[in-house]
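Continuing the series of single-chain predictions for the mutant panel. This is the parent chain; the variants come on the following pages.
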Amino acid sequence: MTLRGLTAAMAAAATIVATGTALAAGGGGTGGPKAAPSPDTGSSSGASLYKNPPSPICANGPAGGQRAIDCEPGVGIHNETALAVNPADPDNLVASANDYQLKVSGGGGTQVTVFSRVRTSFDRGVSWTTYPVPYNGYTGTGDPSLAFDDVGTAYFATLAGGNVNSTDVVVSRSTDGGKTWSTPVVVAAGKGSFQGRPTIFHDHPVLTAWGNGNVYVTWVKYEYAPGGASITTAPVLGAVSHDAGVSWSKGANISGSAPFCTGLSAPNACDQTWGNAPAVSSTGTLLVTFYQTPEYRPDGSTNLARNTHMSVRVDPQTGQAIGPPVIIGLAYDGINEGDYPVNVDGRQTLHDSEFRLLMQGNIAADPTDATGRHFAVVWFDDRGATLPVNPDPYQAVTNSEIVVSQTTDAGAHWSAPQAIALARDQFFPWAAYGSDGRLRVGFFDRRYDSANHAYGYSLATESAPGSLAFTAAQVTNALSDPTTGSRWFRINVEDDFPAATRFIGDYSAIASAPYGTIAYWTDMRDTVCLGGSCGAGQATYVAVVP
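Parent structure:
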């Protein structure tokens, strides 16, 4: 008997209430509109195990080639990677992820904590050491983002939840290359809850840094109607620090309003947003990109209509927007328009799949541009498919593609978005410029599997600076299949695809160094077991591509 007999309308409206979140899997977190589903650990309970580990926690010895860099004792889940290279010492790398720490207790229950760790290398990624961040008073963290300023101070932003707070945005810093981290500073505090639901929920912090002690972080601020049943506004906010993250400006609404926005709080408010990412150029020009939909689902978990990607210029001194947002281009990612099939949670997904999609990417600044006005943005959508697609993932044929646009006038105008046209599905891109002025884009890539099921990780390299013409090559030496046989976030929807995963994170990471491009992604090649049940795990792998 299959569960695939949902009608298209039912599939689009189906909502599965998550029993765990990306902040506190099974551990009493408040959750939120983009919260991950339960990792399916069997029984679970919030546990103090792993909350205050020794420092360092563990180390991976020297090894060549690509490898998993997760070394914490016990079974873990790792996704949503973040990565940064120290410009003052390019051999120094810092990396992080959503890190779930799992352990079967003596009584047979599963102890679960979710605290993002920092993995640090001082030899170009040959060896790695894992360090904790002192998240005192919090019960879980997630959505990591990392950056270095020019003098080598590292910054680490996460969401942090616990007690009656609903996801604070917090930032820690390190002055020794990522070995020791300050107690996190609260940049934006969540506000209370109503019957377990927050009234103000923050999500997806992403940061950038420059000069000596200048750092800027953006996030989405969700505000709920009384009772917590629906979103009343969700703009992009940003805050700046000029003292290495010790103090911060008040969060400013930078998504603003524009005639082309359909708002929740006002007719033209750009407040149905997501996918925020900042970048700063060598001359200090600061741009933020994000996307806006004209129709969120009422709980804010996904866009029902197509997204429009936008940019806004920000004053690097005040953190305030300089003018209204500018359109970059339309994404073919709407449920109403039939751009993607819909999974059991009512979220966009791919052919023969159940894992959710968020069509974000990031913005990158060209370090070789003396004017400081050359940036590129990447996202992904299903423009390569024959649209509309069937809303049933097991009937749909998708052809998701990476999309690129660039500006040479600091975001006043953008080139027409164009796809990196490859066979089958590509998704979760991340972009970085090299010191040669060529753009690199890393992404999950299913063209290596004729069935369009398993993915590898690929790196596309611009043929010439500014050309937006790319050659793409596989980074991974093994594939990952999210469509069946998963240990985490699994669900049985279609008989031919048992234990499909509902979540592999929402983004990947690359970073550029003088010796190459470092890629960091969620990999499912390894089999893991917990509580007598085995399946494909989720580890974070790293590789240096010369």
